[in-house]
């Protein structure tokens, strides 16, 4: 059950990132979608969706790898001094 939840946690931001790529691509071809009044706002919205989806997936993978000690020393969390 936990693996299904983890998969959904990665698929949903992945779909948002894919939608962002689609909006950016459609902007380059001059296709305007209904929620946006201009092409530049559509590109900006697509870029924000893509960046947010990519950041979430990257953060999820980094967090998982840190728990399993599979990251390089420069990506490990620093120990706090007492």
TrEMBL record:
Pfam assignment, any one: DUF2627
| Membrane-crossing residue ranges in chain numbering | 41-62
* InterPro entries tied to this protein: Uncharacterised_YqzF (IPR020138)
What's in the keyword line of the UniProt record? Membrane, Transmembrane, Transmembrane helix
Q: Does the keyword Membrane apply?
A: yes
Q: This chain belongs to which protein, by name?
A: DUF2627 domain-containing protein
Species of provenance = Parageobacillus thermoglucosidasius
Q: What does the organism's lineage look like at the top?
A: Bacteria, Bacillati, Bacillota, Bacilli, Bacillales
């Amino acid at each position: 059950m936990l693996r299904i939840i983890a998969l959904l946690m990665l698929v949903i931001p992945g779909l948002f990132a894919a939608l962002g790529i689609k909006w950016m691509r459609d902007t380059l071809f001059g296709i305007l979608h209904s929620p946006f009044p201009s092409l530049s706002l559509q590109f900006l919205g697509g870029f924000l969706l893509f960046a947010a989806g990519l950041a979430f997936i990257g953060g999820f993978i980094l967090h998982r790898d840190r728990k399993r000690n599979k990251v390089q020393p420069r990506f490990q969390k620093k120990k706090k001094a007492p």
